[in-house]
Specification:
The chain is of the alpha+beta class and 172 residues long. It has helices at 8-13, 39-44, 109-112, 138-146, and strands at residues 21-24, 48-51, 72-81, 88-95, 102-104, 116-121, 127-133, 153-158, 164-170.
């Protein structure tokens, strides 16, 4: 674990934690070829190409930010936990040409502005804790969940629609 001098949430709360976390977008190379496929081929794969008409509204799982009006996204199913009792898949947006976002000790823009359901998992992929985070409160809630040494990672879901927003890992 890396020592921290204190984020704005820690300074505001008066608590300084000795660990860090990282939130990384999905690898764009997995999705780039999909943008070249025809609408018919996408439909057979249960993928929908959409033009973005409102912002915020289409949070990209690669960049971890909302896609601007006029952008193009694919709406597809993503397996975030492959096996076990908490195996999970849900819809995600990925944007054309997105650059992989990486945030350390900082909440990505798409997560910062949303109500989140945070689900903490141990090394056996069992959920051992959970919390809700209002817009602006995710940093403090993530730090609280990571106070439990058994928590290996946290999944952040958009609480309203349930989509997986990001995986949060302990930084090494």
């Amino acid at each position: 674990m890396t020592a921290r001098s204190g984020t704005r949430a820690e300074v505001a709360s008066g608590i300084v934690h000795g660990m860090t976390y990282r939130i990384t977008g999905l690898d764009p190379t997995h999705f780039a070829p999909l943008f070249e496929l025809s609408e018919d081929v996408l439909a057979r794969r249960s993928i929908v190409r959409m033009a973005v008409t409102t912002c915020p509204g289409s949070p990209c799982r690669v960049s971890l930010d909302d896609v601007g009006v006029g952008g193009t996204v694919l709406l597809l199913n993503h397996r975030s936990i492959p096996a076990g009792p908490y195996a999970a898949t849900h819809a995600i947006f990925v944007s054309h040409g997105a650059v992989q976002g990486e945030f350390e000790d900082e909440i990505p823009p798409a997560l910062e502005r949303r109500l989140l359901s945070l689900r903490a998992f141990d090394g056996a992929e069992m959920m051992i804790d959970a919390a809700m985070a209002a817009p602006g409160d995710a940093d403090a809630m993530i730090l609280r969940l990571f106070e439990n040494d058994a928590v290996e990672y946290i999944h952040a879901h958009n609480a309203t629609r349930g989509c997986i927003a990001a995986a949060v890992e302990r930084a090494t």
